[in-house]
Write a structure and sequence with these properties.
Layout lengths: L1 H28 L1 H26 L4 E2 L2 E2 H18 L3 H11 L2 H4 L6 H32 L7 H27 L1 H4 L3 H14 L11 H7 L9 H7 L6 H28 L7
Antiparallel strand pairs: 1-2
Helix pairs in contact: 1-6, 2-3, 2-6, 3-6, 3-11, 4-7, 6-7, 7-11, 7-12
């Protein structure tokens, strides 16, 4: 029985590792695209940083947040975005349009697991080509406040992985929308806008007040950039609780993806056939 269990584990591990390698190699193979993406993201992060730098000049802070912490928040939120950014919704939409999605039904692992392993590989490659360069750019250009405790780096890393899982879950669900909608370009833009606004990447969530703030923190978006950034800045927050909340959102969205994929297979039509 042990041998059989090991054989099944290896049978599952091989396609997972293969998908991971494909994701990483895709980024390294198209280094020029990664560099262009890095330059674009760095430009957006720098402009956003300069905007908030100008807004806090001559002020001790905004909305009770010290000026230096607010600037560090803005930069680190963009660093988080560079890591968890996913193209899985675009990939699924393209595979649906081209009819390649039918081949995924024959693979030994589910489309969801296949896409996730590939996106983790892509994120690991992106870590070196985009995330770390953006981090050092923010540190030298804006003086990002670094953590005082070594364990904070570990918690931040775990939080980034969970934020990636949350964004993957959302992106996968958007990708599955291609089955009933046939075209998800508009929905992809909506998802990107919601992530930018409600994750804390574009506007620090500390500035949200009243009912809007309550609504924002009821959605999964804040767990994607706001949470890892708050952990990195060592704010007075319950780290274990925040990580548990991220894990819960990741699990809920994964389950939603499982249910959505099962339903999508029943209504799959390619080129009207």
């Amino acid at each position: 029985m042990k041998t059989s269990a090991r054989s099944r584990a290896r049978a599952w591990a091989r396609p997972m590792v293969a998908s991971f390698r494909i994701g990483a190699r895709t980024v390294f193979a198209y280094r020029s695209e990664a560099i262009v993406t890095l330059l674009s993201a760095s430009l957006m992060a720098s402009l956003n940083g300069l905007l908030w730098q100008a807004a806090t000049r001559g002020r001790p802070g905004i909305a009770g947040v010290p000026a230096d912490e607010l600037l560090s928040y803005v930069v680190m939120a963009w660093v988080a975005v560079s890591f968890f950014a996913s193209k899985v919704n675009e990939d699924i939409g393209r595979r649906f349009r081209e009819g390649q999605i039918t081949a995924d039904l024959l693979r030994p692992m589910s489309l969801q697991a296949q896409c996730y392993c590939r996106e983790v590989g892509r994120a690991c490659a992106t870590l070196f080509l985009q995330t770390l360069p953006m981090f050092f750019l923010g540190f030298f250009a804006f003086g990002v406040n670094l953590p005082h405790h070594p364990q904070t780096w570990l918690f931040w890393g775990i939080s980034l992985l969970l934020s990636h899982a949350i964004n993957f879950g959302l992106s996968f669900l958007v990708g599955l929308a291609a089955f009933p909608l046939k075209n998800i370009s508009g929905l992809t833009h909506v998802k990107g806008t919601l992530v930018s606004i409600f994750s804390g990447a574009l506007i620090p969530l500390d500035l949200y007040q009243g009912t809007l703030r309550d609504v924002v923190f009821m959605l999964p978006f804040h767990s994607m950039a706001h949470t890892p950034t708050s952990i990195f800045l060592e704010r007075d927050v319950p780290v274990a609780g925040l990580l548990a909340e991220q894990a819960a959102w990741a699990a809920v969205l994964w389950l939603g993806g499982v249910i959505g994929w099962r339903h999508a297979q029943r209504v799959l039509t390619v080129q009207g056939g």
